[in-house]
Structures are given as structure tokens and as C-alpha cells.
Amino acid sequence: MDEVLSAARSTHWSRLNDRTLCDSCLGRLFGKIGHGYTNEARGRSIRRETGLQEGPCWLCVGLTARYTDLADLVVRKLEPWEFDSFAIGSKIDPEIAAREEVLWSDLGAAGPEPLKAEVNREVGKVVSDRLRKEPDLTHPEIVAVIDPAFDHVDVQVNPLYLRGRYRKLVRGMPQTRWPCRRCMGKGCDRCGGTGKMYPTSVEEVIAAEVMRESGGRAHALHGMGREDVDARMLGRGRPFILEVKEPHRRHLDLPGAVARINASGIVEVDALVPATAGEVVPLKEDRAAKTYRIALRMAPPVEEAKLKSTLLALVLEPIAQRTPERVVHRRADTIRHRRVLSADVRGVEGDRVELRVTAEAGTYVKEWVHGDGGRTRPSLAERLGAACEVLELDVLDVHDG
Ligand SMILES: [Zn+2]
Ligand SMILES: [Zn+2]
User: What are the residue ranges in the chain where pLDDT is below 50?
Assistant: First the structure.
């Protein structure tokens, strides 16, 4: 406290004129000096030392005496939500903030702390005691923003994130909910009133179980890339993070949810593990290579030996891919450069061939097979001198780190 008192002694208190301050507002003028004291305790010591007179607080007009009441208000507002960590925010009346600035400059305050910081901390202490939960300023699960002028508390509930790998066992299902193109989700004749292009999606199957458990308001699925609607996702599955917005509950029976998802028969997940917001962008940006099973038909059929030598020559050869015909209506018409990392023949029967192909992230694999009318070069079809029609495509592995 010595540091605080010595700073107080060299302050020009006469410049306060007839303005009186409460202990907290007095101590807060030195709030960044000395550790381990409340501003109120600083203020009490300064008043003893300087003999400054007491009176109604010109600055906060009684706000610093209301922390317990405000904390009670916060506790009531947080009741419907389950959380382990929280933060307090506040809206300070602009007139109070303006008076604070004036006071700092009039007195030449040495290490003042803004009222807002004190409100957030002191209310946070009381809430923490009441709820036996820790404040967490960097990654709070829930934030209560107090508006003391109106005794109002806004609650901001941060999302719950769950991570896993999914397998998609059927064709004809998108990764995420796909709104109907005609009605944009409102419901029309084309979509049978569902507002969707497809009855369900990987996201909806996974989210249904988690939403039931968490009581969330909405959800989003962030995948490490996505497979075509008509491709299955097999093997170890594709990494994803499910984001649940405004969950009422966070301690979920995750193994139970996994078991129910896996009982769907169309989507399986290996696990659901708690994740953080910070993991979403790295997951989405991961440039993982993928391994595919490709079933195709050749016209005319090509001998196996020629097929093998052609594939061998194509491995690691730079491919230039103009945005495919099938997606150019929704993506920019540009040219991508990718490579196929390995390609093997797994079976030949007449005009039918099964391949295993590993390609760099972002390769349009179907187009690499059939050539897309010359938009992808080189292609297997071009090199074989035969039309190649992709009959089935499955993703067998996502080679993430
Ligand atoms: Zn005050
Ligand atoms: Zn529709």
C-alpha cells in the first residue's frame, strides 16, 4: 500500500474542488499501482492519509455499492444454462465514462483503472463465489453483459464444439443440409415442402442426437473437405467438428449419442470429443491427401497391361484442371494444378475397372478420370484413348496429420 499512498500524497487533491468520491472510485485512481488490494481498500487508506471528505459519489453515483445486487441479477440470468467457465462484461453509461476521463485529466491520475474493468472483476468475484465456477476471460463458455443503468443482463452463450471422424455409408447424401434451390429453404412443390434438396445429410444425422442432448438452438458441421453427394466416405472417416449454437447443456452422454448415430445405418462416427473454436479453421484448412476407390467403365475396353502402364506414367504428372463443368455455375472458372500421388488397378472385368487412387487435396478426381471434355489435362481417358465413365466413387482415407 506504500506505493499507493506515496502516489496519493503527490496528487493535487485541490483540483477535486467540491466533487466527492466513494472509496472505490477514489482507490481506482491508483488501481494499477500496488497488487493485492481492492480499489475500495486503496480508497479507504487514501482517505485516512489525506483526510478527503466523504459524500455522494460524483463519478459513479452509487454504482460501486451495487456489485452484490448486480451479481444476483447475473446469477438468475445464467440459471437456465449449464457452463463451467464464464466472463462478465458491462456497458458503462457514457456520461459516467466521460466524467471519469475528466477526473483523470484534472488530477493527472498516476495509474487509474477504468470503472468498466472494476465492475467486470468485482461482479465476477461474487458470481464466482455464488456459483463455484471460475471466470475465464479468454475462452468463456458464457458471457453475461451487465447494463447497470437499466439493471439488464444480456447473456451470450458460446458454442459447444465436438470433434470426431464420420463415415458416410450411403450415396446420395450431402455432408451438410442443402437448401432447396428453388425455394431457398422455405418449402415448395419441388422439395415436397421440406425446403431441402436431399431428405437428410451427414450433419443432420449427427446433430440430431447431439441437439437432443444439448438443447442447442442451431448447428453447423465443419469438415476437413467434403465428398461428392454420390460418393461414400469409408475407411477411418473424415475429420469434422460439430458446432452447437447456444447449448443449454454441455455435459452430454457422448458415448450414448455416438451409439445412436451409429444405429442410423447411414452415418457412423468414431467418437465425439470436446473441441474448441480455435480448432475449426486449422481443420478446414488442412490440405490432406485422399485415397479413393473408383469404379469405371471404358469404351472401348483397354487391356490391363496398357491400363497399368498408363496409370504409372500419370502418377506425379502435373494436372491442370479447369473448374469442372458440373460446378462451374457456382465456382469461379479458374485452373487448378494438382497431382495424383499413386494409382493402382484393383480389378478388371471386361469394360469394368476398379482403381485405388491417392490424390492431393482439392484434386477433381472424377475429371482426372474422364477428362471433362478436355477441361482436365492430362486425364486417364485422354491417355488411354478411350471414354472413361465413373460409375462409383468412394473416399477410403483422408490422410490428415
Ligand atoms: Zn463511486
Ligand atoms: Zn423447395
Answer: none
Give the ligand at the shortest distance from the Cα of 194: 2
Q: Which of 157, 181, 199 is the last residue of a domain?
A: 157
pLDDT recorded at residue 137 = 87
| Catalytically annotated residue among 23, 228, 394, 397 | 228
Q: What was the pLDDT predicted at 34?
A: 83
Question: By residue range, what is the domain housing residue 205?
Answer: 160-285
In DSSP terms, 143 is beta-bridged to: 87, 156
pTM exceeds 0.90, yes or no: no
Question: Residue 20: what pLDDT?
Answer: 95
Q: Is 286 a catalytic residue?
A: no
Distance 206 CA to ligand 2 centre (A): 23
pLDDT at residue 109, rounded to an integer: 83
- What is the count of structural domains for the chain? 3
Note the ligand closest to the C-alpha atom of 197: 2
- For residues 6 and 139, state if they share a domain: yes
Q: How far is Cα of residue 252 from the mean position of the Cα atoms in its chain?
A: 19
Measured in angstroms, how far is the CA atom of residue 86 from the centroid of ligand 1? 26
Beta strands, E only, 224-280: 232-245, 267-269, 273-275
- φ/ψ of 218, rounded to 5, equals -160, 175
**Residue found by looking up cell 448447428 in the block:** 219
Residue 27 C-alpha to ligand 1 middle, in angstroms? 10
Strands 273-275 and 352-359: unpaired
Decide which of 285, 302, 327 is a domain's last residue.
285
Instruction: Check whether residue 241 and residue 376 sit in a common domain.
Output: no
Read off the CATH number of the domain in which 258 is found: 3.30.70.2510
Clarify whether residues 42 and 86 are in a common domain. yes
